[in-house]
Design a protein that fits this description.
The protein has seven helices and nine strands. By secondary structure, the chain is of the alpha/beta class. It has one domain: 3-Layer(aba) Sandwich (Rossmann fold), CATH 3.40.50.
Length: 212
């Protein structure tokens, strides 16, 4: 059976990225929930996805991950007025690798998944978070664990949290990172939790919400 990885021209691995093997929240939640399906909203080069794959393999689970991203970059990748662009690591991580004006990061992501032998676990869904969310909803596709890490602007995070929370079954978890005052994540999450009378757990810059 053909897969999206067939006939891929592999790029050299680029395995320095966000949440690559450096956050134990992924393994803890995967071990506790033992999800059959994880949705990741915002994947980029696959750092956090690869970390989750490692936890899935470690605990011998049959979990599948759907990675939702446009691989085109959010506003924060282009807005040169933002102070974080002075950080060399962040600038490098947000390099779109343009070819004829079009980002090639998607192919780096696919290559990283192949280099780490996670093709059987990971399925990419190339689209906006909201269109993908509508697809999941229309087809009654849920995930016991949903990771929100797309655009970090308040308006975008607010929409992602509101839409994807409904795709988590009771007892499942929606979670994310960058819960701090540097981004719009904290404000959007706090507002959602307050409006819906939910319990919020926070550890360092990670947050998670259990679906009631």
């Amino acid at each position: 059976m053909k897969t999206i990885y067939d006939n891929l021209v592999l790029l050299p691995p680029d395995l320095v990225g966000f949440n690559l093997y450096n956050s134990d929240i992924f393994e803890r939640l995967i071990f506790e929930i033992k999800p059959s399906h994880i949705i990741e909203v915002g994947t980029w080069k696959g750092g956090s996805c690869i970390t989750m794959c490692s936890a899935i393999k470690k605990h011998l689970l049959n979990t599948k991950i759907t990675c939702v991203d446009t691989w085109l970059g959010a506003l924060e990748f282009f807005d040169t007025t933002r102070g974080w662009l002075k950080n060399d690591f962040l600038k490098a991580e947000r390099n779109l690798n343009l070819v004829n004006g079009y980002p090639m990061v998607y192919f780096q992501f696919l290559s990283n998944i192949v280099h780490t032998n996670n093709q059987e676990i990971v399925t990419p869904l190339c689209n906006t978070s909201l269109i993908a969310g509508r697809y999941f909803k229309n087809n009654n596709i849920k995930a016991e664990l949903i990771y929100i890490d797309g655009s970090h602007d308040y308006d975008d995070v607010k929409l992602d949290i509101e839409y994807y929370y409904d795709l988590v079954p009771e007892g499942g978890v929606i979670f994310g990172d960058d819960y701090n005052d540097a981004w719009g994540v904290k404000s959007a999450v706090d507002e959602f939790v307050s409006k819906n009378n939910l319990n919020l757990a926070v550890e360092y810059s990670n947050f998670w919400i259990i679906r009631k």
